[in-house]
């Protein structure tokens, strides 16, 4: 693999970008720009597969974008993207390739010669997984599917099955159990019957504490209910086929270490989605994501939606200094999208050292958060409009509704437009309390319909946007060492809660251990 290109602050364009920010960027007013430049809406509109984006209300001008493109070119964005698609081990700290895109590459497509076998394996596993999904769908005796998994083994399938409610088999109830908090599993077990329940144990590693604890409890509950046919009622979705077999599960759908947990929706981890929407629907989801992959690979930077969004993220985080971004999907089916994006973005780009392990002198991932509209409007939008912090907002709107209730959808769409407009235009009021400063940036992402293909494209767009920002920041977006320390400490603390041994603990933790024991 070629030596890594410089990170953003070591490129020639970076100081020029800073100078542009100091002279123009800081005071840039999107209202004036929209009024004075009749080309702005077209120039800041981007069409990608299934997703139209209006970036024109953002606090960015053509010069800043051009300079960001120079930075991206100097950071080797295109080369690093190509290295990812070619299966080079770009996840250097784990010595792994990053090939979630291969999971949605059609059989027989042109891939690097070294990836042909992997692509054949991907399709053999996909075919087997989808055949099983169809078998479960046809099996009227199975009414409940309980997915036990956490992080990427939960958030993606949960988000997608909610989003694709309109495409779901109504005969199957889906449940998601992720937390080690027994209340969650207990509540599900009280709703289901062992004779008609299928447990999917979803874990890339098959070692995650929460998932293994829940899986053992589910198996014990199944046995206590008189269940004996584990082969029929349990399946595993994992890269660790051996551990699944040791657990006693014979039906396993595998995937590979080059699929990161937060990028695994497209793998066997997607089985609950396939059961919910069928094999054809799942293939459409993959097809939408693949269309976005092609766009990301081939569209020039200036018209490449994931790249433009990634560059905007860098502009906002490192020049404007804004520390969070709010995602407001105006479709209740997308209610778990913000949680999904939190893992995708913050686990990927929440890093403080560069590829060489050196501390970074600039900020990386913003906090990503949000709720569906219009609910958020009646909760935290007050702060977005009049608070002291500027929070860029990303609205997601869907032109066609999947229901026929009169009036609702037009009101919903009017609200998404109104919020974006209000953030931009503001309102003058000398009295102060009713004054809205305006010029608050927002993006509108527009889908024609929320269906498997458009959802696949939308999620892949976010993946590649995270990748883009990560390349500029010069970080490894594909490891997650930051989650390890807490896991190790929890292992040490669990027996202490039993024994009361507080030796070597800090005074605060020791006191809390004592308090929890009494
Ligand atoms: O702890 C973080 C993490 O490793 C995530 O990256 C991952 O999605 C999640 O845990 C679950 O891991 P697994 O699928 O191996 O159980």
How many helical elements?
A: 19
Average pLDDT, rounded to a whole number, is 97
- Shape type: globular
The percent of residues in helical segments reads: 40-55%
Strand percentage lies at: 5-15%
Which CATH class of the largest domain applies here?
A: Alpha Beta
Q: How would a textbook summarize the main sheet?
A: 6 strands, mixed
Q: N-to-C terminal Cα separation, in Å?
A: 57 Å
Would you list the SSEs in sequence order as H and E?
A: HHHEEHHHEHEHEHHEHEHHEHEHEHEHHH
Which ligands does the model contain, each kind named once? 6-O-phosphono-beta-D-fructofuranose
User: What number of structural domains do the residues give?
Assistant: 3
Question: Strands of the biggest beta sheet: in what spatial order?
Answer: 1-2-11-10-8-9
Rg from alpha-carbon coordinates: 24 Å
Structural class: alpha/beta
What is this entry, summarized?
With 518 residues, the chain is α/β, with parallel strands linked by helices. The protein is built from 19 helices and 11 strands. 47% of the residues lie in helices and 10% in strands.
Top keywords for this entry?
binds 6-O-phosphono-beta-D-fructofuranose, 518 residues, 6-stranded mixed beta sheet, alpha/beta, Rossmann fold, 3 domains
Account of the protein in words:
The structure is a single chain. The protein is built from 19 helices and 11 strands. By secondary structure, the protein is of the alpha/beta class. It has 3 domains: 222 residues, 3-Layer(aba) Sandwich (Rossmann fold); 176 residues, Glucose-6-phosphate isomerase like protein, domain 1 (Rossmann fold); 36 residues. The strands form 2 sheets. The chain has a 6-stranded mixed sheet, with helices on both faces. Strands 4-3-5-6-7 form a 5-stranded parallel sheet, sandwiched between helices. Helix 12 packs across helix 17 and helix 14 runs parallel beside helix 17. The longest helix is centred in the middle third of the chain and has 28 residues. It is globular. The N and C termini lie far apart (57 Å). The model has no long low-confidence stretch (mean pLDDT 97). 6-O-phosphono-beta-D-fructofuranose binds next to loops.
